[in-house]
Amino acid sequence: MALAVTAYERATAALGALEGRGMKLGLERIEALLTQLGNPHAGLVGVLVAGTNGKGSVCALLDAVATTAGLSTVMMTKPHLVSWRERIAVDGAPIAEDDFAGLIFGVLDAAAAIPGELGSPTVTEVVTAAGIVAAREHAPDLLITEVGLGGRLDSTNVLDLGVAVVTGIAIDHRAELGDDIAGIAAEKAAIIKPGNDVVTGATGVALDVIRDAAERAGAASLAAVGTDIPWRGEDLGREGVGVEIGAPVMRVRTPLIGRFQERNLAVAAQVCRVLERRGMATSDDAIRRGAAAVRWPGRMQWLDGTPPLLVDGCHNPEAVAAMVTAALPLCAGRRTVIVFGAMADKDLDGMMAALRPLSGEVVFTRPSTVRGAQPGVLAAQWGGGALTAADVPAALLAARRLAGEQGVVVACGSLYIAGEALAAAGVTTTGGLAAQL
Fold first, then answer.
1. In CATH, which superfamily holds the domain spanning 7-293?
2. Residue that wins the pLDDT comparison between 49 and 174
């Protein structure tokens, strides 16, 4: 006898169908959808986090600090690694299956009533609306929201939460954002609203653009970490990273691995100090305790085994280069085999060039999404000597055989690859995002 299909399974099937229709930027559909839902975004407060890399890590750090401080939170991130529930977390843990399903069905019902000329909402817009409704229902002290592609036309830009963050700027999503740093910075800085407190880790021309955007928007303040706010970092290897930041100087550590996490930690710490000035209980002590407790799967995540597995969702050349820099000392003296897959619309040549210093042995695969690049195409671009596998589990099996018990396998190239690698390794991502490692 067939098992009954759960509400959660029906909801995720509906989202999967929407996902196949592709991406459409613009705020018209999400605004119409929220109108049908009674404008649940009105009055919400928190932090809106944009940036090319690091925005998810900053969100996770902020959520961990807030929950450690006793504040209630809803956190919206994207994409998920294993479970759709990861995209809406309540008080540090992914939302329950039944609650998630109820939110999705409610939003889909509202979507049926929006004007037909606007078209159907995208999967991102539906999940964004669901997260906003969850925030209205839970009335958290803080709504922590990760911006998706760009900022100006991303569905999250309907939110004015009081604090706007731009982690940093690099080239990614060329088709949508172009390859001009100033232009990309302008797209991401468009999340800044009048009266916002702004924090950024950007430098150079990107920082100039963000400062100008903040001034034109009428922001209340802007703090540039590394320019206005001094800091220095310390790489602690597999123990994570530490930073000293600001005046008075605060020392804080996190188990997140990789030198690139130093700036993310510094940005998150400064945001928490801004939140404290806005009346939130994010004291320096709460920052230290929360940062030490954060858990953010799929980002330089080391899994012991024979051989061990290192998983990272790096998805553009800058992120791959940062991953390689962090991975080289961890993999030193071991035979290293890479499992790599990426989205077809990425800068594949740039990503592979950044990847080469880590290993000459690669198994190319593809994530289970229509946007995934074909393994054969990747292998041809690599230039010979690589293996291909139809899916991530098969790629991991081949890589483990090549690496042997004393080697190490590195799975990377996209958050989809990271999620599927964790699932294949039997790792859960729904046990509480702020749980102690």
1. Mur-like, catalytic domain (3.40.1190.10)
2. 49
